[in-house]
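My current task is to audit a protein record that another person submitted. What it holds is a sequence and that sequence's fold in token form. Thanks in advance; the entry in question is below.
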Amino acid sequence: MDKNLILIRHGQSEWNKLNLFTGWKDVDLSEQGKQEAVQAGQALLDYNIEPEICFTSYLKRAIKTLNIVLDTMNMDYLPVYKSWRLNEKHYGKLQGLNKKETAEKYGDEQVLKWRRVFDCQPPALDDTDERNPRNERRYKDIDVKDLPVTESLKDCIARCMPYFNDVILPEFKNHDTILIAAHGNSLRGIVKNLRNMSEQDIIQFNIPTGIPYLFTFDENLNLKEHKFLADEETVKKLMEQVANQGKK
């Protein structure tokens, strides 16, 4: 029997709307983001895809997206597991800055490197910075040395993939359909590995908010197909919007 993995990038957040670097900042969904989550749940209903177990990050924009998706499907009872390892890439000192203004100051090329280049880290937070995750209660049980103060995509993948491989994938032994609601870069890491994408290809690959991305595997977890559950033109338009966020 086939196995299904559903990836959903959280709906538009208040900082997405303002075109700000968000990272680990705990920003809520915008009204549009809430509606995108409803539409994601409706898409799963339309395609008759029913998740059995769910995973999400420690950040409310992903948690609330998942909650709305499940509520739309009348499946609020499903088990949900949260992990900080599914958090967005940490943007260090860029968090809270406007992407367009940052591109005007440093240039499109530098901002693209910070956003997308596989092993390029943005400037790191200082230990005393209030944005440092070691100062947040939600991370109090995590070893300080594991908490990032900046991350490249490579770092984000190194944080995320052990959890995906060791915790999420084994659930296919007991379940046929798994849902992950997370973030653009943590999901990009999963996609890179599942599709064996190069570092260059993943730089150019953009995941739109609120569109379920379905991966179908055979019983041995060999990938059979992958597709967004939306029409091609809509997906293309939304991908372009994500790609243009960091341009002046």
User: Anything to note?
Assistant: The mean pLDDT is 93. Residues 31-46 form the longest helix (16 residues).
